[in-house]
Write a structure and sequence with these properties.
It is a single chain. The chain has 269 residues and is an alpha/beta fold. The protein has one domain: Acetylglutamate kinase-like (Carbamate kinase, 3-Layer(aba) Sandwich). The chain has 8 helices and 18 strands. Strand 1, helix 1 and strand 2 form a beta-alpha-beta unit. Helix 2 packs across helix 3 and helix 5 packs parallel to helix 7. The longest helix has 25 residues. Bound molecules: adenosine-5'-triphosphate and magnesium ion (MG). The site of magnesium ion has 5 residues, from loops.
Length: 269
């Protein structure tokens, strides 16, 4: 099987757990795995230490995103492609997994269209058009590079950054990066590991839901999770079999989700 697994920054605060790493090691024997990681909260923390307070904007659709000016993009690169990516790579290698860390700009792995303008909604619901900064939407995945690495038994560990048409590094969303990669590779499963057990609707954890059903309740899903559900729909649309949203802590977090024992399964039907 081909699996794309996104490690939420929410579960990487103390580095990837040994349970998670040993699960990845066991799964990698039988499957091809591409990892994508998050880490936004750590970027915010380190930016504050550097005296660069981060600004967030909310889109009319309710997405919250970092306002990424040039300096913020530099800090994002240092923390995400530097610190966090290398910590994951080192943890995997310490268990004998041949991991290769790369950001979306390496080997032109991810190409994106830079957002020229963004619409930001303030607390009173007023809309304002602002300059897009260094953020983008992925338009192309270099699947050759990933397949080359997988073919030689390397596990790619991808930082959600992308190259613009003008060769600027852009900040792209981690969940949607994982969805684009899963879609481009026609992965069997996209697994989104986070700090909650899965999707909760009206206070109840959901075990299984279809794409059609989840679209109807999208507006009731809070920030963080709604990005995952949008990413899940994008992946399913591109031919991924199923999307699993589950907790990254606990025993064998990925294997148990693949067996549908834990977490939420989102599929076309
Ligand atoms: N309906 C919902 N069901 C479950 N969780 C929800 C829901 N609505 C909002 N959430 C929130 O979504 C959060 C997960 O998304 P979040 O972006 O915080 O983590 P992450 O994606 O794992 O980390 P990162 O964004 O750094 O990669 C949960 O901690 C939870 O509080
Ligand atoms: Mg998130």
């Amino acid at each position: 099987m081909l699996l794309v697994v996104k490690l939420g920054g929410s579960i990487l605060r103390e580095g990837a757990s040994s349970e998670l790493i040993s699960d990845l090691k066991a799964l990698a024997k039988e499957n091809n795995i591409v990892l994508v990681h998050g880490g936004g909260a750590e970027v915010t923390e380190i930016a504050a230490k550097l005296g660069k307070e981060q600004k967030f904007i909310v889109s009319p659709e309710g997405f919250r995103s970092r306002y990424t000016d040039k300096e913020t993009m530099e800090i994002f690169t240092m923390v995400m492609a530097g610190k966090i990516n290398k910590q994951i790579v080192a943890a995997l290698q310490s268990q004998g997994v041949l991991a290769v860390g790369l950001s979306g700009v390496d080997g032109l792995l991810l190409k994106a269209e830079r957002k020229k303008r963004l619409i930001a909604v303030d607390e009173r619901g007023r809309k304002k058009v602002i300059e897009g900064g260094y953020t983008g939407k992925i338009i192309e995945v270099n699947t050759n590079l990933l397949q080359f690495l997988l073919g030689k038994d390397y596990m790619p560990v991808v930082t959600p950054m992308a190259m613009s048409e003008e060769f600027e590094s852009l900040n792209v969303d981690g969940d949607r990066t994982a969805a684009s990669i899963a879609g481009a590779l026609k992965a069997d499963s996209l697994v989104l590991l986070t700090d909650v057990k899965g999707l909760v609707l009206k206070g109840k954890p959901i075990q299984k839901i279809t794409a059609t059903e989840v679209k109807e309740v999208l507006s009731s899903i809070g920030k963080g999770m709604s990005t995952k559900v949008h990413a899940a729909l994008e992946a399913l649309n591109q031919g991924v079999n199923e999307v699993l949203i589950t907790s990254g802590s606990g025993k064998q977090p990925i294997s148990s989700a693949l067996k549908h024992e834990y977490g939420t399964v989102i599929s076309c039907e």
